[in-house]
Design goal:
The protein has 487 residues and is of the alpha/beta class. The protein has 16 helices and 22 strands. The strands form 4 sheets. The protein has a 6-stranded parallel β-sheet, sandwiched between helices. The longest helix has 15 residues. The model has no long low-confidence stretch (mean pLDDT 88).
């Protein structure tokens, strides 16, 4: 696929890093020549110096035969205008814009073909807010990713000594708890002086303390799964109540505003260094959200505000070093769980295995929304995992036994690549294509199925895979592609 990326900032670089590895033809436009030279030296892509709202610059970047435009420059206005020019002058089929403003949500006339002609608006701050909110709902989880409209989830959790499933093989667990419908799809195990090693899951695989375990299950089963891997037998789950947010920027404000919509559920404190921003925060948030002016790495301030009683400490400033240091300090002073927002990939890698429970990259939180547009076939959801190395993929089975290599066939008969793990199937979801054509829909409640070797794939099944290496994506997409006779 031929793709133009407007903007070589943090988001643009992360998008380029992910898409170049999939053998796409990438061109990046930016006004900063030095930044582009750095990208060209690290990745197999082309840089064009100039403004993305100038038609001649887009033409130089190859807009006449481009398949996808991703406009992620710093300014909303630049991204919107670029999408409109791409439609009017170059007829680029797909156009995505990074827009921070909330004023365009639900405004079809503004972003539709007669407006700015944006097919999809991406807001990294909104993606982060949704992601962090899931981690608050499931405090034992390290990651929570949704599929099939939220009916199924992929979670990763650190296995702890004393938890019911830890110390047992996966085969033992299937026999002892057959009612717990779930599928363990991967384990990453720590070894001295080397990166975490991927452990493929089968019935003989034993779960050891310290393992990072990836599990796919129906949404209503996630809490049980997390408890069985992370909490000692009989210990109840401790919900998140006391939250401290370090940094009152866009992400901190969005998150506090969303959490405050459940009055009385959370005790929220925000620490912000700048006095003017504190005034803005106090005027924008409900009165029960406490806004404090101060340094997020001030030990006295954290102590005075009861950091030892905090269930979740979130470092969400724009400074990676401050986020890392404030999290390490908060953890040492007694915070139950800490999350650091880290932009630099090298820093995120260094934090893995330290006292920081979760190191979250803003770009990784939103990459899945972009990747779903790049994938071939009927891909519904994509989630980038393990700092971009692994991936979880939801794809719809189409056609019939004649036009498809998967429909009407048992799981054991599918020619899946080695290490690709089919986690679950969601059956009975409304078909968007049929609905648009006026075809009557099945009104039964969708069913989450843990596939066995004898399970037969049906048309319109949503199948979720775990892929430990992104290079396997094309093989899965090819397998699910229908023949030309379909439709």
């Amino acid at each position: 696929m031929k793709i133009i990326i407007l903007g070589a900032g943090r988001v643009g670089q992360s998008v380029a890093d992910s898409l170049v590895s999939e053998r796409n033809d990438i061109t990046v436009i930016d006004t900063n020549a030095e930044r582009l030279r750095d990208l060209e030296s690290r990745y197999d892509l082309r840089g064009v110096v100039g403004s993305g709202i100038e038609p001649n610059v887009l033409a130089e970047a190859g807009a006449h035969d481009t398949d996808l435009l991703i406009a992620c420059a710093a300014q909303d206005e630049t991204n919107l205008v670029c999408c409109k020019i791409a439609q009017l002058m170059f007829n680029i089929p797909k156009r995505i814009a990074r827009v921070r403003s909330t004023g365009f949500e639900g405004e079809e006339r503004l972003v539709g073909p007669e407006g700015f002609a944006v097919d999809r608006i991406i807001c990294p701050e909104e993606s982060l807010t949704r992601y962090i909110a899931k981690l608050i709902d499931y405090p034992e989880a390290m990651q929570v990713r949704e599929f099939a409209g939220g009916r199924a989830c992929l979670v990763s959790v650190r296995a702890r000594v004393g938890a019911p499933m830890v110390g047992h093989t996966i085969g033992d667990l299937r026999e002892k708890a057959p009612e717990l419908a779930m599928r363990m799809v991967a384990i990453y195990r720590r070894f001295p002086d080397e990166p975490d090693r991927f452990i493929a899951c089968d019935g003989r695989t034993r779960i050891e303390p310290g393992d990072e375990v990836f599990v796919l299950a129906a949404q209503q089963r996630i809490a049980d799964v997390l408890g069985a891997l992370h909490r000692p037998q009989g210990q109840p789950s401790k919900p998140v109540r006391r939250i401290m947010i370090a940094g009152g920027g866009r992400v901190g404000l969005r998150l506090a505003r969303q959490l405050a919509q459940a009055p009385g559920r959370y005790n929220i404190k925000i620490i912000e260094d700048h006095a003017e921003r504190c005034v803005e925060l106090a005027s924008s948030l409900p009165t029960d959200v406490l806004v404090l002016q101060g340094d997020t790495t001030d030990e006295d301030l954290l102590g005075d505000e009861g950091i030892e009683e905090v269930d979740l400490f979130l470092a969400l400033t724009d400074d990676d070093e401050d986020n890392i240091m404030s999290c390490l300090l908060a953890k040492r002073m007694g915070a139950s769980r800490v999350l650091a927002l880290i932009n630099r990939r090298s820093y995120a890698d260094l934090m893995h295995g330290t006292q920081i429970d979760i190191a979250l990259s803003p770009a990784q939180a939103m990459l899945g929304e972009l990747l779903a547009y790049v994938r071939q076939g009927d891909v519904q959801a994509v989630h980038s995992l393990r700092r971009g190395v692994a991936e979880a993929l939801e794809i719809v089975a189409r056609g019939d036994r004649k036009s498809s290599r998967v429909v009407g066939r048992k799981v054991s008969d599918l020619q899946l690549p080695r290490d690709v793990h089919m986690g679950l199937i969601v059956r009975g979801l409304p078909d968007a294509h049929d609905a648009a054509e006026g075809v009557p829909q099945d009104l039964r409640e969708p069913e989450v199925i843990i596939p066995r070797s004898s399970t037969v794939i049906e048309s319109n099944d949503h199948v979720v895979f775990f892929l430990p290496h992104k290079r396997l994506v094309r093989d899965v997409e090819k397998l699910f592609r229908v023949s030309a006779t379909f439709f």
